[in-house]
Design goal:
about 60 residues, alpha+beta, four-stranded antiparallel β-sheet, 2 helices
């Protein structure tokens, strides 16, 4: 499964993908640390999680 991470940086929109939720959360956290804005993780079912919902996402998948 693919988990997409979207963010906004100084050059525009960035879209990345990872194969697991923990990897997606790690990359999203790195993007936030790098100063990116509007960081979101999009699940294969289309559910979108913003930074404030990452803990909820961890609970959903049992991490």
């Amino acid at each position: 499964m693919k988990f997409y991470i979207t963010a906004l940086d100084t050059s525009g929109t960035v879209t990345l993908h990872r194969d697991s939720v923990p990897a997606a959360i790690k990359k999203a956290s790195e993007l936030i640390s790098d100063g990116c804005l509007n960081v979101e993780i999009v699940m294969p079912d289309g559910a979108t999680y913003r930074r404030s919902e990452f803990e909820q996402l961890k609970e959903r998948i049992g991490v």
